[in-house]
Amino acid sequence: MSGRPKESRISRTAATALMVLLALYFLLPLYFLIVAATKPQADLVSTFGLWFSHFDLVGNLRTLLAQRDGIFGRWALNSVIYAVVGAAIGTLISALCGYALAKFRFRGRNFLFSVILGGVLVPGTALALPLFLLFSATGIVDTYLAVLLPSVVSPFGVYLARIFANAAVPDELIESARLDGAGEFRTFFSVSFRLMTPSLVTVFLFQFVGIWNNFFLPLVMLQRESLFPITLGLYEWNGQASRASLLQGSVITGSLVSIVPLIIVFILLQRFWRTGLAAGSIK
Amino acid sequence: MTTHPAREGRRLRGGGPRGGTVVAFLTPFFLPFALFYLVPVGYALWQSFRVIRRTGGQFGHAYTTFGGFDQYAQVFRNSEFGASLGRVALFGIVQVPVMLFVALIMALLLDTPLLRIKSFFRIAAFMPYAVPGVIAAIMWSFLYSPQLSPIVDLLNGIGLRPDFLGPGAVLWSAANISTWLWTGYNMLIMFSALQSIPQELYEAAKIDGASNWAVAWRIKVPIIAPSIILTTVFSIIGTLQLYAEPAVLRQISSNISSTFTPNMLAYAVASGNNYQQAAAISVTIAVITFVLSFGFMKLTAKRAGL
Amino acid sequence: MPAASIWEEDMSIVARRIRLAGAAFTALAGVAALTACSSSSSPGSTSDAASCKPAGGTVTLQYWNTVPGMDQIVALWNQKNPTIKVEIKNVSNDQYGQIGNALKAGTAPELAQVGYDELANLRIQDAFVDASACTDATAAKDKFVPWTWSQTSFGGTGVFAMPQDTGPMALFVRSDIFQKHGVAIPKTWDEYAAAAQKLHAADPNLTITFFDPNNAEWFNGLLWQNSARMYQYADNKWQVTVDSTQSQQVAEYWQKLIAAKLVRTDLANTSPPMYAAYEKNQVATYVGAAWAYGMFRDNLPKQAGEWTIVPMPTWGSNPASGDWGGSTVAFMKGNKHLYESVKFNVWLNSDPEAVALENKQGLYPASLAGLQLPALSAGVPYYDNEKIFDVFADSSKNIDTNFAWGPTQKTVNLALQDAMAKAAAGNGTLRDALKAAQDKALSSMKDQAIPAVAG
Q1: Contact status of B173 with chain A (Cβ, < 8 Å)
Q2: Which of A100, B167, C171, C297 could form an S-S bond across to B25 if both were Cys, CB 3.0 to 4.6 Å?
Q3: Which residues of B touch C40 (CB under 8 A)?
C-alpha cells in the first residue's frame, strides 16, 4: 500500500457523481423506451413520460406483430438473415485473408495489406450510392443480395484477423504441419482456425453489429417492404407516424424489441468486446 | 499423416505455400472487395464524368455523354453543397472533441481506484453501441418532441421552454444523438489501451508522490495517444457521412432541409434522377473524407512523437 | 516509453504505397468503364403508342398506390375478373423514390398512382407507356373532368394515365368560434386577413389558420387559385415563371400574416399536434381540399356540427379556386399487358361501384360518374348535414385549366419547402422562397438538359 497517493473522499465522491450522471445520460433514453413501450397509445401524450401508467406491454406487442399484416416479424427475420449470413461469410473470408497476410510470404503482401488499410478508412455510407448506381445498372437492386453482397466485405475484419493470426498461431506449428506434408488449407482448418476461434468470435460480433445497425445501404437498395431490415422498417413507420398516429406506439414497441436481443448479446459476451477493442486500439 | 524422422534443428522452407494456394486464401476476400468496394468507386467516378443530354422537344429522350469536369464544377458551384459541408464541419468541430473528451475522462476514471462498481458504468456507457443509429435517433426524437418528451415536461415545469427542434438547436440535437451513440465505444477503446499499460510505469511516479491527475495527464494520456488519434479519425470519418440522425429528425422537424448534410444532398440528387451529379457528389465527399482523415493522422503522428 | 503502435506503422505503409493503390484504382475504374459502357442510352425516336393486344390467358398486374383501403376495391375487381389478377402494394413511404428506383431497375409495376404534379417529372424520364392504341383508353376521355384529362394527356392525344381523384379547395370553418367572437365568415382574402386580426385580438391563443412550410403542394394550390401559371410551353422550350407577379401576390399576403403572427407556423398538416391544436380551439379555419373532409370527422368526433365548409376566399371578385392534390393511375414503362391494364384502370376510376367505394375512403372523384354519386349529394352529418360537396363541385368548376406542372416538380417543391421553412423560422421571406424555387426550377431543368427559359 505504500507509495499510493491517497484518494480523498472528495475526489471519490466527485468521480462517482460524474459517472452516475453520465450513466443516467446513457440509460435514460433506454429507460424511457421501456416505459413508453408498456403504455397504451393514448397514454403516451397524456401521462408523464418517465413513469408507468397502465401496464400493457403484451397488448402493445400484439399490436406490433399484427401491424400491417405482421410485417414486423418479417423485418426481424431479415435483420437476422443479413447480419448472421453476412457476418458468418465475412468472418470466414476475413480469417482466410488475414491469416494469409500474416503467415504467408509472397510478393505484393505489403501492397495488399495497405489496400486493406485504405479500405478500413472508407466508410460504408460512402459506398452505398455508388453501389446503388452499379447495382441498378446490373439489375440486382431490391433483392436480398443487394444488401448481403456488400455486407460480407469487411476490411476491418481482415485487419483484426491478421493481428489475431499473428498472436494466436505460432509459426512453428505451421512449419511442423508443413513438414508433415499437410496442405495449407488443411492446416488452416484443423489447426490454425481452432486457435483463432475465440478472436474470430470477436470479428464475427463486430461485423454482426455493423450489419445489424446498417441503415443507409438498405435504404438506398431496397424498395420492397418485405426485404427491409428492422432499422429501415421502423424508419419508414416513423415517417408515416406523423400522419397515422396509431403507428407511433408500434414504432416505440418495435424499437424496444429491436434493441433487446443485441443488448443481451452484449452483456453476455462482454469479454470478446474487450479483447477486440484492445487488439484494435493498441496493437 | 506420415511421421517424419527426427528433424535436425529448424529447416527453413523457402517461401512457404505455392502461389496458387496463396491466391486461394486471398481471393474469397479480395474478389468481393474488388467487386463491392473498388468497382463501385470506379463506376461512380466514371458516371461523374458524364452529363445528361436530351433529343429536344418538350419531353425529349435523355442520353448521357462525356462531360469532363462539368459535374464537379456543378458540385462546387452548388451553394447547397457548401452549406451542407459547412454544417457537418461545424458539427464535427464541436461534437468530436466534446465526445472524445468525455470518453477520455470516463476511461481515465475507470482506470483509477476512485470508483466501485466499475463494470456497471462500463456496461451503461457501452449500451448505446448496441442501438442502431436510426433507432437511437427515433428514441431521441421522442425525447425532443414537445408532445411526448418527459424532459420537455420537466423543463416546462421549471419555467423553461426548450425547443430542441428549432432552427438553431436542431443541429446540436442531432450532435447529441451521435455523442450518445459513440461515447461509450470510444471510451472502451481508450480504456482497453489504458488497461494494457504495464504497472511498472506507474511505480516511479507513485514513489515520487505524484497525484492521480498528474499520473493521468503526464503518463497515461501520452501513452494512449494512438488510440485517441484512432478514435478521432473514425469520428471525423463518421461525421462527414452523417445521414441517419438528421433524416430521422427531419420526420418531425421542418428545420432540417432535404440537403442538410452532404450525404442527404447526394441522396436527394439521386432521387431527382440526376445520377451523374449524385456520383460526383459522392466522389467529392469520399475524397474530402479521405484527405481529412489521412491528413489528421499524418499531422498527429508527427506531433505525438512517434 | 510510448511504443509506436502497429497501427501507426501500418498507416505509414499506406502513405508509401498510396501511389500504387492509386494506379490500381484507376485501372479498375477503366475496367468498370468498359463494363458499364452499355448503360448509356442513345437518342432514339419519340415513343409510339404501344400495341394493345389481349394476353389470352390469366394476367397478373402490379398496382402501386398510397391510398389506404384501396385493397378492398382491388379485391372487388379480382372477384369479378379472375383472369386479370391485380396485386396491390402500398408505397406511401417515398412513393416517387420507390417508383423512380423501380424504373431504373426495370422492375416497375404495370400501374402506379402518380400525382398530377409528378406526371411531367416522370414523363421526362420515359416512365410511361402511351395506351392510346387501346380504344377503351381513348374512349375514356369523356368520362372525366376536362382539366384532369388535359393533364394526363399533356394536352395531346396520348393516354398516359387515368385521372383518379382531385382536390378542389375550399375553406373549412369552425363556425362556432366565429360566432363566439362575432366575426363574419370571410369571402375574400382581404376579409380573411381582417378576420385573422379580429380573432387573434379577441383570443391570443387563437389563430385563424396555420401555415405549414413543408407543404409545397398546398402552397401550389394557392398559387393556382391566383392563376399563377408556373410553367408554359412555347418555342420548343419550357417557360418558367414560378415567381410571377401572381405568385408574389400570394407570397406577400401570407408573409404579412406570418410576420404579424396571425397564423401559426409550427403545425404540420394532418399531424397529431395539428389535431390537438384544433381540439383545443386554437385554430379557427383550415384551407383544404375535398379529400380532407373525413380528416376532421375521424380525428375530432366531438366537434361534429361545429364545422362548416364554404368557398375558398377569393382574390377580389375573381371566383377562381385552386386544386390541391389528387392523383392519377399511370401506365408504367415496361407494361406488357396494356389491354388488361386499360380495362382495370378505366373500371377503377369510372365504374360507379368502384368510385363509390373510393369515395368512402375520402377520394373526391375525377370522373363525371363519380360526381353523380348519391353520396355526394347527400348532407354530411358531421358538417351539420350540409351538402358540402356542392361547395367542392362549384370549386372544381372554377379551377384554371391552363395550369401546368414542371418536369422537375419534385426538386422544385423540395427547394420551395426548404426555403419556406426558413421563412417560417424568420430567416427570409416567402418571396425569397419563390425566388429560390424559380432558380431551382431553371437549374434543375438545365442539369437534365431540358430546354427552359425564365418567362
Answers
A1: no
A2: A100
A3: 50, 63-65
Cell 508509401 belongs to which residue? C16
Give the CB-side neighbour count of residue A105, counting CA atoms within 13 A. Answer: 8
Contacts of A88 in chain B (CB under 8 A): none
Would you call C51 helix, strand, or coil by DSSP? coil
Half-sphere exposure of C376 (CA within 13 A, CB side): 26
The Cα–Cα gap between B59 and C155 comes to 13
Would the CB atoms of C418 and B53 count as touching at under 8 Å?
no
Q: How far apart are CA A78 and CA A143, in angstroms?
A: 11
Do C28 and B34 make contact, defined as CB atoms within 8 angstroms? yes
Cβ-in-10-Å burial (0-12, 13-18, 19+) of B231 comes to: buried
Which residues are CB-contacts of C192 (< 8 A; sequence separation ≥ 6)? Answer: C186, C208, C313
Cα–Cα dist C8/B264, whole Å? 33
CA distance B170 to B247: 12
Name the 3-class secondary structure at C327. Answer: strand
Reported in sequence order, the residue ranges of C79-159 that DSSP labels E, i.e. its strands, are: 84-90, 111-115
Q: Is the ipTM of this complex over 0.85?
A: yes
For the entire predicted model, the pTM comes to: 0.83
- Under CATH, what is the fold of the domain C168-323+403-454? D-Maltodextrin-Binding Protein; domain 2 (3.40.190)
Supply φ then ψ for residue B50, to 5 degrees.
Answer: -120, 155
Q: How far apart are CA A114 and CA C15, in angstroms?
A: 9
CB contact under 8 A, A134 and C107: no
Beta strands in A5-151 (DSSP E): none
Residue A27 touches partner C, C-beta closer than 8 Å: no
Please give the CATH number for the structural domain made up of B70-303.
1.10.3720.10
Specify the pairing of strand C237-240 against strand C452-454.
Answer: parallel
In B, residues 105-164, which contact A (CB 8 Å cutoff)?
A: 105-106, 109-110, 112-116, 120-121, 123-136, 138-143, 147-151, 153
Contact between residue A279 and residue A199 where contact means Cβ atoms under 8 Å apart: yes
Pinpoint the alpha helices (H) of C226-259: 245-259
For the segment A227-265, what is each residue's pLDDT rounded down to a tens digit?
Answer: 999 999 999 899 877 666 678 889 999 999 998 888 877
| Fold match flag (C50-166+325-379 vs C168-323+403-454) | yes
C123 Cβ contact partners less than 8 Å away, ≥ 6 residues apart: B59, C154, C160, C407
Here the cell at position C125 is 424520364
Domains annotated for chain A, with CATH where assigned, are: 38-282 (1.10.3720.10)
Numbered ranges of CATH 1.10.3720.10 in chain B: 70-303
Q: How many residues does chain B have?
A: 306
Q: Which chains have 3+ CB pairs within 8 A of C? A: A, B
pLDDT tens digits, residue range C417-454? 999 999 998 889 999 999 999 999 999 999 888 999 99
